[in-house]
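The aim of this short unit is practical: by the end, you should be able to scan a pair of folded records and say something sensible about each. We start with the first protein, listed as its amino acid sequence and then its structure tokens.
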Amino acid sequence: MNIIMCESSDIDILYDEWALAFEGTTIDDENLKWLIRWIENHNCKMIREDFYVITGKLMNEKYNLTGDNAYPNDCNILCIKQSDLTNVDGIIIPRFEIGGRWITDVINNNLAREERD
């Protein structure tokens, strides 16, 4: 298992890949092992056990998120690249059960809310 703390350029790569994202999750071994098992239980496998972590602070800085739209600085947004998964189709619908979204949607929704507010 590899935990990769993201820099700004990493977010661009995750965005382009439509990485699977979980906002506000813990990144301890127990949680990551549980997530690997959950993925495997949905006919999907991790090719590489790489977990990318975007801090709330970095997300706020990169996208100028403010007020109620900003993340707590210590919030973790855990991402898994789609290229690190087999059979992504197996988790497309079940991901909603555990709060999984595509990072592209997370970012686009945050930007839209920021423009409205």
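Turning to the second protein, read its sequence before its tokens, just as you did above.
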Amino acid sequence: MELDYISLRPVKPALTGYIRKAQSLIKTSTYPDEKMVHDVRVLMKKSRSILKLIAPQMTDGFAEREIQELRDVGREMSSWRESSVLQKNLKSLKKHHSALFNKLQENEKLVSLMYQPDNEDETNEVITNKLELILEKLNKTAFRIRFEQMDKIDPNLLLKELERSYNVVIDNYLKSRNKPVPGNLHKFRKRSKDFLYQLWFFKPLNTASIKDLEKRLDNMAQNLGKYNDLAQIIKAFGYNYKATSNQPELDELILIIRKEQERYISKIWPVAHKYFCPGSKLINVLGFKLLII
């Protein structure tokens, strides 16, 4: 017998859980290593995606304010992640192209990017103070969420907001496919992750179908992330292919990076077209017949 009523996953426990986990990660870390920074930033993105989902049903600009607060937390930690990821990717490239890197060993910019210690410009005291400020922001957000009324959220309005997120991804996919530059692809990745994280609440509507969709979208987002990480290397070099003073070896390195980017980007287009082709309907993508939620 087919059920005529399905409950969505509750919003407030998930939101408080994300914030609580971020607080715990920061409290138990003595130094902002790559894993901790990555995990906290993901939790901030998940939290913001929830707040975007419920924003139309909240009063007094609550969701918008908390989105900004949590975005500030992510930005405070972004520089810590960027330097470590950049170094890791350069060292991976060196592993596969050691002869080329040997020819570039006198390139000051490359040496600086590869071997500059993480957070070199920040003393331990500065890092500690920053972590304390981040934790204070999270504590205040957790307190405000605790006393915010969320038990009367209309699930049908949540579904409408999910549809809005979905249409935003379609728009960003179209822009990226027509003009696949780093800025457009970065926005496409951010909006697709919003949609991905919001999907979690709707999984009871069709668990198998949505689970498969989540897996495919997560893989797409990871490939977009790898593309973006490589784009940051090119940006960090301040590379301009028209410059007459470029070392030939540097030009070759950039071409190798471009080839890697093409490899990652070629993996995302089939998935993106399948789910975000203009004219696609959310209900068809989710694969369920809407009953009562």
